[in-house]
Amino acid sequence: MPPAASAPSTLTFEDWSFLHTRLLWCYEGEVDAPNQHRFSQRNQLSAWWIQAGAVTVKRGRDTWTARAGEWMFCGPHPLHQNFSPGARILSINFKLEWPSGDSLVEQIVVASAAGHPALGKAARSLLRFISRCFPGIVTALQPQSVKLTDFFETQQLFAAWTQAYLKTVLAAGVVPARMGGLDPRVLEALRHLDRHDWRTPFREKNLAATAGLSAGHLDRLFVQQLGLTPRAYLQKRRLESATATLADSAVPAKKIAYDLGFSSASHFSHWLRRATGKSPRQVRIGTT
Prior knowledge:
Number of helices: 11
Shape: globular
Number of strands: 11
CATH class of the largest domain: Mainly Beta
């Protein structure tokens, strides 16, 4: 069941509490050559504050351009990105999604930085803290070790930036997608799936027991409300994790394979090619 479009005021506090927020990276610098012109298989949100040069993105027949002094916000969809030579950006990659994996925001938006000063101020505060805690780390914040107090400080600064971001896209006319009325038992199962350790076997019978259902009943509920079985949902998340880590980090494919529970890099490569038609290297460099 896809999320429904709804004004934010129609949701309850409990509804919003199911929203997953995750900061993937925050950095500032010149766009390197491999990322200037590429096709990006995206499953996250991006915010680019263009400080020099310009960027044009194309999705289907639609094209958007942002120049120095503007923000570009991209939704979680595959697109072609083309940065001008010497383009410099402040880049924030993140997720705002429901337990089903549907993103809160889908659209691409271009906005003036001068017209939204709170957004830039919050981005600078977040960038300063990230740079101090993780010197030299450009992408892939999630695998980094961090002290508890620094983790919560990062979350607080990210929340402040996210609030400014949402005010900006709402002002541009974006209507967030809201979570559909999911069965509480499905939500309970989704919580367990999102915490699944890829290096341990998945047993649907055990998952169903946490929701007080038989495996068959849970399967039917998942298909009715999400359009896929629990096992298919887990594989979808696994694939998203694999493609995002390959495309947005320098983590070796062998380590990604291990972290995702594969017995070997060759097994991982075969699985990825079967799912996407691409090798790990092709996903990493963004070939179409």
